[in-house]
Amino acid sequence: MALFVLSDPHLANGVDKPMAVFGSHWNNHTERIRENWLETVAPEDTVVLPGDISWALTLTEVLPDLKFLHELPGTKILSRGNHDYWWTSLAKLEHLCQTHQLGSLKFMRNTALLIEGSTIICGSRGWILPDDPAFSPDDARIYAREIGRLRLSLQAATAIDCPGCETIAFLHYPPFARDRKPTELTRLLTDFGVTRCYFGHIHAPVPAYQTPDFLLEGVKYTLASADRLSFKPLRL
Questions:
Q1: What is the pTM of this model?
Q2: Domain with 105 in it: what CATH number?
Q3: Helix 90-99 and helix 59-70: axis angle, to 10°?
Q4: Is residue 88 within 8 Å of residue 59, measured between CB atoms?
């Protein structure tokens, strides 16, 4: 029983959104994800997908992508990214999966989950940080809301009775600044005893986010975007 991560799969089985326009390394990426997944993940394993799951805009459009994931081995835990416009309430997402018998999919928002009795996972979407030149008053409001959501997820993690369990966080946006300085998000992760954090969103070669296993205030941070991982789930 193993735990994996694969962020930003950017699936588009229900919409016309070819990822190859972002570079030849995205050619046939959906099929590459499928092949690598089948070679790597066993039915008893768990894969966390922290955001940018699908280019779909509605639940109808996202259904082919959710079916694609369901048919792959293992339990999949999905959280929201900035491009997941199809993401509605947890109740609606869970109803969709019940209706279409997509029992291998779970959704994480303001919550935490115990994996195989030894690992607690939690996290949130995050947002662009105040050091971003484009950061606006609207972004400040969303950023504050995401800090609150991450706190809720971390509090849910601490409420799980699991002495000795490791707590791992998954965010869509990188939570530390481009100069690798702490933020309110990273301070929360440290304060709540998180040991590792995996994030996505980054596809360009931004130096601050490329170093594998960057350590900040006791938390190890790793970029897990699908293209960064050659579209192969990363075993934790």
A1: 0.94
A2: 3.60.21.10
A3: 60
A4: yes
